[in-house]
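Q: What changes when pyridoxal-5'-phosphate is included in the input?
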Amino acid sequence: MTTRSDIRQRLGLRPVINVSGTMTHLGASIVVPEAIRAASDILPEWVEINDLHRKASRAIAEATGAEAGFVTASAASGITLAIAGAMTGADLARVEQLPDAAGMKDEVVIQMGHMTGYGAAIEQGIRLAGARVVPVGNVTDARSYQLAHKIGERTAAGLYVVSHHTVQYGQMPLDVFARVCHERGVPVIADLASEYDLKGFLAAGADIAIYSAHKFLGGMTAGIVAGRKDLVRATFLQNGGIGRGMKVGKESIVATIAALEAWGRRDHAAVRRTEHGHLDLWMRRFAAIPGIKATIIPDPTHNPLDRLMLEVDPETSRITAWDLADALAAGAPPVIVRDHEVEQGFFQLDPCNLHPGEAEIVADRVVAELDAARKRNAPSGRSVADRRAARFERLLRWPD
Ligand SMILES: *Cc1c(COP(=O)(O)O)cnc(C)c1O
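A: The predicted holo structure follows.
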């Protein structure tokens, strides 16, 4: 158990409760004690950083079954640097030439339904390496012959994304995508930032697998690039090029090693039981509320976790799903729900990032806001479009 401090209060930050997921905009994750300890142990010490990277490579190889691994600043930078590595190989002159890709293979094929974002667009992550994006298929349908047709002399890599953000149908499975790429000598880089499975995607044909260290693993902010040794080495060599602006410090490297080891030792069944305890509590508390339908739903990309979907009937509830989400976020304590599909009339509660006692508080807040809305009997009439517009406006006023 990590002891909790009053640092948020000292800084004047709101004491948010996160039932949204491991989100960058909420501070990524609750870092596991092992990673915190490792980071604080290394911070006052000198290290030979490439030696530390060598140790991390071994830890990543151990955890993923890959030949080698490299710790980056984030999964997003891992994507850019792995693509850069596929373009330059171990040629340091080319490493220094980027983002000017003249004379290099500079195209990256990606299924159009995988062209998502994670706060920034993945296609920009590709372009950042100096590469060009070559989309395959259309948003809801991409086929192997279309991929084959888009691969040519200039293809540096194929990028494959596994995420709930991608289109979940009409896409090639990884093994098919990899087969088409490999038959043409093209390496496959897989963005698996939020996927719990550390071995299966490499086994299914990815040459490079990229994970976030600060999501399910509970590490400090970092990315993990695992895979074929020559490609991982070429990714590492970008430290002397475009990777310099995305550098990772000793504290994040040791925290990543510690988080991977802790993940290997974790009692995953016990964690799941705790999460299901939260879900069952919420199901009980919301069962009798008029206008509310609660359902336990599996993770869309088959991570071993479930969430609670809360459908809000605005007629009976006298509040829309998005107004309810905002009321929960505005109140005390603030509860931030998983609302990226909220215009469809529902949001989700993610049970994976809670401190003890918070699941009960979340239930109390939801019940109280719904009671208040029914008593008020005055729906706001605010559309989802208005809500989004207000958010963009607020962003543009930062830091005010
Ligand atoms: C979170 C996420 C990213 C970005 O990960 P960072 O480590 O925060 O840069 C990239 N791709 C997918 C699919 C993600 O879910």
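Observations recorded in class: The CA atoms of residues 124 and 378 lie 43 Å apart.
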